[in-house]
Design brief:
9-stranded mixed sheet; single chain; 237 residues; alpha/beta
Amino acid sequence: MQPEFTGIPGTPSAPDVAVVVDVMRAFTVAAWAFRRGAERIVLAGTQEEALELKARHPGWLAFQDGVPVPGFDLANSPARLRSLDVRGRTVVQKTTFGTTGALAVADAGLLLCASFVVAGATAELLRRARPRTVTFVVTGDGGHAEEDLACAQYIADRVRTADTDPGPYLERARDSDAAARLADGARRGWAGVHPGDVAMCLEADTFPFAMAAARVDGHMVLRPVHTGDTEPARPTH
C-alpha cells in the first residue's frame, strides 16, 4: 500500500480509497457516539443544513464544533458526549475540518473517517482491502495539523506492521498546536470544551471498528464497520 498525505485543498476529487483524519475532535466524537449506541451519523455541509435535517426528522441530534449554537445538542466534545443519550439515534454532524474533509472526497471508491481511537481497526480494514494507494486527508491547519498527520502515519505504518507502537505518534499529537489550544480552552472555561477532551482524543485503538461513509438517499452517512464485517458499502450516486 502506497500512502499519500494531503490537505483538503489538495485532495483529488475521487480517490480510490480515502481516509479522512480529524483527531481533535470530529472523528473522536463520531467514534464515541457509535460506542455509545448511535445508529448512524449524517455529515452535513453547513450548520443550516444540519439544523434543517434535525427539524425534518424528530428524534435526530445535531453536533457542531466551536461555540455552542442554539438548536445543536452538542458542541463536538467527546467528554461532554458522555452525558448525552444517543442510543439508537441518528446524529447530524457539522465541523470545520472533519466533515468538510469527508465531503470533499465524497466520490472516493472507499471513504473512511478516522482518529486515534479507531486507528487500529482502520488499519486492519485497509490491510484486508489491500488497495494500491490510499489518500490520507489531513484535515486540520490546511493539511499541516501535526495530530492528524501523526494519526494518518500511524494508520499507514500499522497497515504494514501490525504491532506498530502508537506511543511516538500519540506524543506528536500531544505536543501539537491543536492539543495546546484545546487544553488552553479547557483551562479558560471556553463553552463547548471539556477538560477531558484532549485525553480522550489521545487514546489509541480504543474501539474494534472503523468508520465508513457512503451516500444514502442523497446524504453522506457514516457507520461503524467492525473488522470482522464484510467490506463496507461503496457510495451510490
